[in-house]
Amino acid sequence: MSSGDRSEITPDMKIADLLEQHPEVETVLLEAAPSLAKLKTPSLRSVVTNTKTVRQIAEAEGISIGVMIGRLRGSESCPEGSGLENDTHSNESRPIWLEEGTEVGSLDAREQIQSGGHPLPTVMSAILKLAPKEVYSLTAPFEPIPLIKKARDAGCVAWTEQLGPEEFKTYFAKAQ
After folding, report:
1. Would the pTM count as exceeding 0.85?
2. Domain 6-73: which topology?
3. Do 82 and 145 touch, CB atoms closer than 8 A?
4. Domain spans of the chain?
5. Where do the H-state alpha helices sit in 7-160?
6. CA separation for the pair 1, 11 (Å, rounded)
7. How far apart (Å, rounded) are the C-alpha atoms in residues 2 and 9?
8. Neighbours of 117 (CB within 10 A)
9. Which residues pair with 102 in a beta bridge?
10. What does the alpha-carbon distance between residue 32 and residue 95 come to, in Å, rounded to a whole number?
11. Hey, CA dihedral for 151, 139, 55, 58, is it positive or negative?
Protein backbone atom coordinates (compact mmCIF):
# COMPACT_ATOMS: atom_id res chain seq x y z
CA MET A 1 0.00 0.00 0.00
CA SER A 2 1.52 3.30 -1.07
CA SER A 3 1.34 6.27 1.23
CA GLY A 4 1.78 8.56 -1.78
CA ASP A 5 4.53 10.44 0.08
CA ARG A 6 7.90 9.50 -1.34
CA SER A 7 9.69 12.22 0.65
CA GLU A 8 10.43 9.67 3.37
CA ILE A 9 12.57 7.56 1.02
CA THR A 10 16.06 7.74 2.51
CA PRO A 11 19.45 6.16 1.73
CA ASP A 12 19.18 3.74 4.66
CA MET A 13 15.70 2.43 3.85
CA LYS A 14 15.60 -1.33 3.26
CA ILE A 15 14.56 -2.25 -0.27
CA ALA A 16 11.78 -4.50 1.09
CA ASP A 17 10.36 -1.57 3.09
CA LEU A 18 10.65 0.70 0.07
CA LEU A 19 8.69 -1.72 -2.12
CA GLU A 20 6.11 -2.41 0.58
CA GLN A 21 5.45 1.30 1.20
CA HIS A 22 5.85 2.41 -2.43
CA PRO A 23 5.20 -0.47 -4.83
CA GLU A 24 4.85 2.07 -7.64
CA VAL A 25 8.65 2.66 -7.59
CA GLU A 26 9.52 -0.96 -8.45
CA THR A 27 9.91 -0.17 -12.16
CA VAL A 28 12.13 2.83 -11.40
CA LEU A 29 14.22 0.72 -9.00
CA LEU A 30 14.65 -2.12 -11.49
CA GLU A 31 15.66 0.33 -14.23
CA ALA A 32 18.25 1.89 -11.92
CA ALA A 33 19.40 -1.46 -10.53
CA PRO A 34 19.26 -4.12 -13.25
CA SER A 35 21.04 -6.59 -10.96
CA LEU A 36 17.83 -6.80 -8.91
CA ALA A 37 15.83 -7.68 -12.00
CA LYS A 38 18.18 -10.63 -12.61
CA LEU A 39 17.15 -12.21 -9.30
CA LYS A 40 14.50 -14.53 -10.70
CA THR A 41 14.19 -16.79 -7.64
CA PRO A 42 11.67 -15.28 -5.20
CA SER A 43 13.59 -16.56 -2.18
CA LEU A 44 16.88 -15.01 -3.36
CA ARG A 45 15.16 -11.76 -4.25
CA SER A 46 13.53 -11.75 -0.80
CA VAL A 47 16.89 -12.19 0.93
CA VAL A 48 18.43 -9.32 -1.03
CA THR A 49 15.52 -6.92 -0.59
CA ASN A 50 15.25 -7.65 3.14
CA THR A 51 18.95 -7.09 3.80
CA LYS A 52 20.01 -4.36 1.36
CA THR A 53 19.37 -0.64 1.63
CA VAL A 54 18.83 1.96 -1.07
CA ARG A 55 22.41 3.15 -0.45
CA GLN A 56 23.87 -0.36 -0.85
CA ILE A 57 22.01 -0.96 -4.11
CA ALA A 58 23.11 2.44 -5.44
CA GLU A 59 26.74 1.65 -4.56
CA ALA A 60 26.52 -1.82 -6.15
CA GLU A 61 25.16 -0.27 -9.36
CA GLY A 62 27.70 2.58 -9.37
CA ILE A 63 25.00 5.23 -8.98
CA SER A 64 25.43 8.15 -6.62
CA ILE A 65 22.98 8.23 -3.74
CA GLY A 66 21.71 11.64 -4.82
CA VAL A 67 20.71 10.32 -8.24
CA MET A 68 19.13 7.17 -6.75
CA ILE A 69 17.07 9.10 -4.18
CA GLY A 70 16.03 11.59 -6.85
CA ARG A 71 14.83 8.82 -9.14
CA LEU A 72 12.93 7.01 -6.39
CA ARG A 73 11.29 10.14 -5.03
CA GLY A 74 10.37 11.31 -8.50
CA SER A 75 10.92 14.72 -9.98
CA GLU A 76 8.73 16.61 -7.52
CA SER A 77 10.78 18.67 -5.12
CA CYS A 78 7.82 18.78 -2.76
CA PRO A 79 5.82 15.59 -3.19
CA GLU A 80 2.11 15.88 -2.50
CA GLY A 81 1.47 14.78 1.06
CA SER A 82 4.99 15.62 2.25
CA GLY A 83 3.70 18.49 4.36
CA LEU A 84 5.97 20.89 2.48
CA GLU A 85 3.69 21.85 -0.41
CA ASN A 86 3.11 25.37 0.93
CA ASP A 87 6.76 26.10 1.74
CA THR A 88 8.77 28.36 -0.50
CA HIS A 89 11.16 26.59 -2.88
CA SER A 90 13.51 27.57 -5.66
CA ASN A 91 10.68 27.96 -8.17
CA GLU A 92 9.66 31.05 -6.22
CA SER A 93 11.63 34.07 -5.08
CA ARG A 94 13.80 33.85 -1.99
CA PRO A 95 11.93 34.48 1.24
CA ILE A 96 12.47 37.79 3.02
CA TRP A 97 14.07 36.07 6.04
CA LEU A 98 16.78 34.70 3.75
CA GLU A 99 17.31 37.97 1.88
CA GLU A 100 17.64 39.93 5.13
CA GLY A 101 19.50 37.25 7.08
CA THR A 102 23.21 36.67 7.52
CA GLU A 103 24.62 33.20 6.84
CA VAL A 104 26.57 32.27 9.96
CA GLY A 105 27.30 28.63 9.21
CA SER A 106 27.11 25.99 6.53
CA LEU A 107 27.75 22.32 5.91
CA ASP A 108 28.39 20.59 2.60
CA ALA A 109 27.23 17.09 3.49
CA ARG A 110 27.33 15.51 0.02
CA GLU A 111 30.41 13.36 0.71
CA GLN A 112 29.22 12.55 4.23
CA ILE A 113 25.84 11.33 2.92
CA GLN A 114 27.42 9.42 0.02
CA SER A 115 29.65 7.56 2.49
CA GLY A 116 26.80 6.66 4.84
CA GLY A 117 26.93 9.54 7.32
CA HIS A 118 24.02 11.56 8.62
CA PRO A 119 24.19 15.37 8.92
CA LEU A 120 21.00 15.61 11.00
CA PRO A 121 22.62 15.93 14.47
CA THR A 122 25.12 18.54 13.27
CA VAL A 123 22.51 20.58 11.42
CA MET A 124 19.89 20.44 14.17
CA SER A 125 22.46 21.48 16.78
CA ALA A 126 23.53 24.43 14.66
CA ILE A 127 20.08 25.69 13.72
CA LEU A 128 18.74 25.49 17.26
CA LYS A 129 21.50 27.93 18.29
CA LEU A 130 20.65 30.50 15.61
CA ALA A 131 19.81 34.01 16.73
CA PRO A 132 17.18 36.12 14.94
CA LYS A 133 18.22 36.97 11.34
CA GLU A 134 20.93 34.29 11.34
CA VAL A 135 20.86 31.64 8.61
CA TYR A 136 22.49 28.22 8.36
CA SER A 137 22.82 26.32 5.08
CA LEU A 138 23.15 22.67 4.19
CA THR A 139 24.26 21.36 0.81
CA ALA A 140 23.12 17.80 0.07
CA PRO A 141 22.80 15.49 -2.96
CA PHE A 142 18.99 15.56 -2.65
CA GLU A 143 16.40 17.67 -0.89
CA PRO A 144 16.59 16.70 2.82
CA ILE A 145 12.82 16.56 3.37
CA PRO A 146 12.89 14.55 6.64
CA LEU A 147 15.43 17.03 8.07
CA ILE A 148 13.33 19.99 6.92
CA LYS A 149 10.33 18.49 8.72
CA LYS A 150 12.34 18.09 11.95
CA ALA A 151 13.56 21.68 11.68
CA ARG A 152 10.00 22.94 11.17
CA ASP A 153 8.85 20.93 14.19
CA ALA A 154 11.60 22.69 16.17
CA GLY A 155 10.31 26.14 15.20
CA CYS A 156 12.50 26.84 12.18
CA VAL A 157 11.81 27.78 8.59
CA ALA A 158 13.57 26.33 5.56
CA TRP A 159 13.95 27.11 1.89
CA THR A 160 15.66 24.91 -0.72
CA GLU A 161 17.14 25.68 -4.10
CA GLN A 162 18.50 23.14 -6.56
CA LEU A 163 21.87 24.28 -7.87
CA GLY A 164 22.66 21.15 -9.91
CA PRO A 165 21.58 17.55 -10.44
CA GLU A 166 23.03 16.49 -7.07
CA GLU A 167 23.34 19.83 -5.34
CA PHE A 168 20.48 21.04 -3.19
CA LYS A 169 21.13 23.94 -0.85
CA THR A 170 18.70 24.30 2.04
CA TYR A 171 18.71 27.40 4.21
CA PHE A 172 17.41 27.35 7.78
CA ALA A 173 16.49 30.12 10.22
CA LYS A 174 14.43 30.49 13.37
CA ALA A 175 10.80 31.28 12.58
CA GLN A 176 10.02 34.94 13.29
Report:
1. no
2. SP0561-like (1.10.3910)
3. yes
4. 6-73, 96-174
5. 15-21, 26-32, 34-37, 42-51, 54-61, 65-73, 96-100, 110-114, 120-128, 145-153
6. 20
7. 12
8. 12
9. 134
10. 36
11. positive
